[in-house]
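Today's session is about reading a structure prediction critically. Students often jump straight to the picture, but the first step is always the sequence itself: look for stretches that repeat, for charged clusters, for runs of hydrophobic residues. Only then move on to the predicted structure, which in these notes is written as discrete structure tokens rather than atom positions. Here is the chain we will use throughout the hour.
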Amino acid sequence: MDLNLDELSETKRSSAKPSAAVADATEERDAAEAAPLGGGTNAAIATIGRHALVYGAGIVISKLASFIMLPIYTRHLTPADYGVLELLAMTIEIYGILTGMCVFASVFRFHAAYETIEDRNEVLSTAAIGLSSVAAVGALLGILASPLLGDLVLDGTPGSALFFRLFFLTHLA
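Below is the predicted structure for this chain, in token form.
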């Protein structure tokens, strides 16, 4: 009987079963390749990606709306109206700084610093109550000071006090 060495080695390879240790190592390697950053991170990355898309879509839609409204603005607003809008925008930014609307970064910092959910919820509730209180007092003072702000910022432009009152009322919402 004539044996071909190539056939014999091929038969041995196909019939040989890997040991349990080799099978376990192969399974671990396959699992590591399937989830390169560890278990569950693929789902987390997918969630972050979806949130980023939604956030990005909101920004794009906002910019697109501004671009679409540009012909309407230029047709109906005078250069003086643009100046009034810019002065209102700057006043609103200063108001936000003074009333502590930039507290959100510190809320994230302290929220992450606590381990228990009770402590984290306490940080969030304290920040919400504090910001709401400051906003309410600031809006009330702003509504009362609207005629003065209209005279100082907009040089007594007709309806300037109304602009500020509307801003402070919408700030409460």
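Discussion point for the tutorial: The longest helix spans residues 41-76.
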